[in-house]
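User: Just a sanity check before I run the rest of the batch. Below are the structure tokens for the first item. I only need the designed sequence back.
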């Protein structure tokens, strides 16, 4: 369900507003699913609305964007799907400028990347409140967050951890102090150099890993290396990644709360929200159900089992009773 050009052959089929937004500068495709309200969207409060949903171009965010679109559709809206935009900035710009109406964004990304703060706020709710309040001036409305936290972590294979019994990053620091050669770590280039990555983590936990113990590689390879080889004891992972479960990895607890909170929350173009405030009551129940574990399961369906993000989103919403097949 990525962005597809929908202009050819659709004149006269689509509403003019959809055509205008679907052609030229924008790409996208109308959501054609036959879905009706379940526990959300009763009375079709978005009847007559034309809304555009967007997302960044990684599996989890696409799935979350599809969820918003399907909920809007079930609530009676015409929906244009502009999910899968390249990178964070293009999706962000679409929300700020009104090229898209809603998406799921991450509190840490809002605070650090868009609003330019260097230091994250350790309390997840306070982090969300700070982003919500400051982003109002950009014409962006943040709805309540989920507990789904897509942040950095270190993971170890269950089989290797049988030897070390590591539970927290403080345990890793203690092991590195006792036995520096034991702690080998696979990371991405970016993580190896960022203040909110490895250098900052080492500082926060008072550890100093020898350069020879740090191996840099592509993100996808890290999971396999940690799971299947002995070249790295620990690997940089994202906490909601479906491969954590699939490859039998254990995530170590960031007991000093060094890594930023990246809780997923719906963001809505403020003018859209002023016109359709009912969006909040449509999305709040969905957001409340989104946990890190739920994200791991849904992401695994896409990244491990090869399912389509749209189908994964739809199946979950139906299974949870939020929407029904028409």
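Assistant: Here's the designed sequence for the first item:
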């Amino acid at each position: 369900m990525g962005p597809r050009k929908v202009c050819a052959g659709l004149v006269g089929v689509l509403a003019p507003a959809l055509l205008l937004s679907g052609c030229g500068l924008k790409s996208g495709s109308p959501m054609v699913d036959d879905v009706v309200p379940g526990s959300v969207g009763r009375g079709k409060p978005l009847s007559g609305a034309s809304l555009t949903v967007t997302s960044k171009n990684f599996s989890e965010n696409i799935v979350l964007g599809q969820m918003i679109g399907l909920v809007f559709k079930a609530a009676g809206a015409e929906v244009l799907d502009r999910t899968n935009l390249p990178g964070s900035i293009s999706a962000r710009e679409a929300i700020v400028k009104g090229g898209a109406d809603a998406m799921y964004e991450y509190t840490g990304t809002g605070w650090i990347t868009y609003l330019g703060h260097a230091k994250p706020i350790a309390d997840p709710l306070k982090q969300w409140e700070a982003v919500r309040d400051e982003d109002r001036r950009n014409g962006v409305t943040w709805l309540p967050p989920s507990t789904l936290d897509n942040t950095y972590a270190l993971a170890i294979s269950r089989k290797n951890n049988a030897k070390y019994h590591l539970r927290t990053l403080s345990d890793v620091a203690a092991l590195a102090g006792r036995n520096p050669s034991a702690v080998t770590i696979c990371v991405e280039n970016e993580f190896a150099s960022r203040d909110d990555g490895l250098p900052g983590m080492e500082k926060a936990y008072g550890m100093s890993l020898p350069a020879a113990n740090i191996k840099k590689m592509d993100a996808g390879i890290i999971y396999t290396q940690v799971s299947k080889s002995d070249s790295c004891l620990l690997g940089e992972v994202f906490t909601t990644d479906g491969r954590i479960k699939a490859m039998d990895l254990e995530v170590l607890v960031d007991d000093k709360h060094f890594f930023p909170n990246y809780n997923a929350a719906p963001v809505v173009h403020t003018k859209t929200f002023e016109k359709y405030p009912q969006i909040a009551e449509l999305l709040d129940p969905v957001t409340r159900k989104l946990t890190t574990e739920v994200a791991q399961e849904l992401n695994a369906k896409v990244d491990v089992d090869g399912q389509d993000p749209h189908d994964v989103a739809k199946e979950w919403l139906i299974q949870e009773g939020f929407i029904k097949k028409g």
